[in-house]
């Protein structure tokens, strides 16, 4: 099959969160399976250009409709980690993608509506006729609408759309001007069955458009699929998902074991495997040395996370205090898009600056992240909601026992050491239900107790996790079946 990914992110060249990793990992898996895969992205000024090989202009003066204008664009081609990527660069006074960051501007709906139209215009003008156009999140929600309304009448009737929802907290609400901008009639789509938002009745919802007009809709774990259809985690899209339930399902994300694998990881002090798990502790020593923690007979509990309310930031604060009070060391790597949260954690860092059992790194450092996964004993993920989660999958591979809340993809992948309805050899972490300090403590208490009192059993949990296979092999197979289904 010929597959084009239309996306606002792809690791490692343009990455804010897990969406970037999914596009990269799934695309590579689909190529391994013999498909032709291409990725279309905006040409951001803040891309990691050092991760693009052979970047060159491949299409000049692409004219993209914008209201009653034609905005000229150039399209560049380059390889990102071996994947074929096209980058659309508009020459326009609004500088849509020359902002220094990917998201966070008042005109984000306008920027990505333009990108959606530009991606389809590029496919049309360069004579690309993919079997599947795979779109991701609200930023590309207008692609299936435009394909249905405009481009199928211009020679693109062959392509089918798979649309993946990564996080329903952000849906792309906008006014009628955004539809006019891309050449759609707002009056035609402003109804409950198409793009009208179910809560803000005066607004258009770009994600809803993607759901309604695509051929199949996925989200990133089976549990999250249930949650967004049947609880307030749908953020108003529950009825739409029920209406389109026949073409909706959850496919659990994978992780790239070429990147996250202690057997080959170049960023850790000592590579190790399930059969040589004792070498993990050389990384624990190295982590302590790097972060100026004392070498002591204590477990290290780590958090590697964006710091926001989705990730349970209040529980992370509490976990620092609880860990230090119960014989543990605590390491945090992460930052927040909210300056207030960053300031709060900087204050905690300052207060604990001389504590030899705690280190907070209020930033993100990819190399350090690898060493934290390898050197820690437990990884804490107390999320309020978690569509899939990649950090727990990485932790398992590195023999670091996850402590997670029972939600979304965390519930699909982590099975409690004491209470899971699973054989013991499939139990791989600690799980709590209630989103409060007591719930968090119930899991941390059991994990810390196991580490101190029953080290052999704790090691079995580590080994169970390392045996898990959360590669892209299974989701690659699932997506191939979905593509074949909608292609017929």
Protein described:
This protein is α/β, with parallel strands linked by helices and about 500 residues long. It is about 35% helix and about 20% strand. It folds into 2 domains: about 1-255 and about 475-485, Glycogen Phosphorylase B (Rossmann fold, 3-Layer(aba) Sandwich); about 275-465, Glycogen Phosphorylase B (Rossmann fold, 3-Layer(aba) Sandwich). The chain is built from 17 helices and 17 strands. The strands form 3 sheets. It has a 9-stranded mixed sheet with strand order 3-4-5-2-1-6-7-10-11, with helices on both faces. It has a 6-stranded parallel sheet with strand order 14-13-12-15-16-17, sandwiched between helices. A two-stranded antiparallel ribbon has the order 8-9. Helix 2 (about 110-125) crosses helix 3, helix 10 (about 315-325) runs parallel beside helix 15 (about 435-455) and helix 15 (about 435-455) crosses helix 16. It starts with a strand and ends with a helix.
């Amino acid at each position: 099959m010929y597959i084009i990914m239309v996306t606002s992110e792809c690791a490692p060249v343009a990455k804010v969160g897990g969406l970037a990793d999914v596009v990269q990992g799934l695309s590579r898996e689909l190529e391994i399976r013999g498909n032709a895969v291409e990725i279309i992205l905006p040409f951001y000024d803040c891309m990691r250009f050092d991760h693009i090989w052979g970047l060159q202009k491949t299409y000049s003066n692409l004219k993209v409709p914008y209201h009653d204008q034609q905005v000229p664009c150039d399209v560049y081609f380059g390889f990102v980690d071996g994947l074929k990527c096209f980058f659309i660069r508009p020459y326009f006074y609004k500088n849509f993608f020359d902002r220094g960051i990917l998201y966070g501007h008042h005109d984000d709906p306008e920027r990505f509506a333009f990108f959606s139209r530009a991606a389809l215009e590029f496919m049309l003008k360069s004579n690309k006729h993919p079997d599947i156009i795979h779109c991701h999140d609200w930023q590309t929600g207008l692609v299936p609408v435009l394909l249905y309304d405009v481009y199928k009448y211009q020679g693109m009737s062959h392509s089918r759309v798979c649309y993946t929802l990564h996080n329903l907290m952000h849906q792309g609400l906008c006014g009628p001007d955004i539809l006019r901008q891309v050449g759609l009639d707002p009056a035609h789509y402003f109804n409950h069955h198409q793009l009208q938002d179910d809560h803000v009745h005066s607004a258009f919802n770009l994600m809803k458009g993607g759901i309604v007009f695509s051929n199949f809709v996925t989200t990133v774990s089976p549990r999250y699929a249930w949650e967004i259809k049947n609880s307030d985690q749908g953020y108003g899209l529950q009825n739409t998902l029920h209406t389109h339930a026949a073409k909706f399902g959850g496919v659990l994300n994978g992780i790239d074991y070429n990147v996250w694998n202690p057997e080959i990881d170049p960023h850790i002090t000592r590579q190790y495997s399930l059969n040589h798990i004792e070498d993990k502790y050389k990384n624990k020593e190295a982590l302590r040395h790097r972060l100026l923690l004392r070498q002591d007979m204590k477990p290290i509990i780590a958090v590697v996370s964006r710091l926001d309310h989705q990730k349970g930031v209040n529980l992370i604060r509490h976990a620092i205090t609880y860990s230090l009070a119960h014989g543990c060391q605590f390491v945090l790597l992460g930052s927040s898009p909210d300056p207030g949260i960053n300031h709060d954690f900087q204050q905690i860092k300052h207060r604990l600056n001389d504590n030899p059992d705690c280190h907070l790194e209020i930033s993100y450092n990819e190399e350090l992240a690898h060493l934290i996964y390898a050197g820690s004993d437990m990884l804490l993920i107390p999320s309020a909601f978690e569509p899939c989660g990649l950090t727990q999958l990485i932790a398992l591979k590195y023999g670091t026992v996850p402590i997670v809340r029972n939600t979304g993809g965390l519930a699909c992948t982590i099975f409690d050491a004491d209470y899971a309805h699973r054989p013991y050899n499939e139990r791989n972490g600690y799980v709590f239900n209630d989103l409060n300090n007591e719930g968090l403590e119930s899991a941390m208490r059991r994990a810390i107790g196991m580490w101190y009192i029953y080290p052999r059993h704790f090691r079995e949990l580590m080994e169970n996790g390392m045996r898990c296979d959360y590669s892209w092999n299974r989701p690659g197979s699932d997506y191939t079946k979905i593509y074949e289904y909608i292609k017929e």
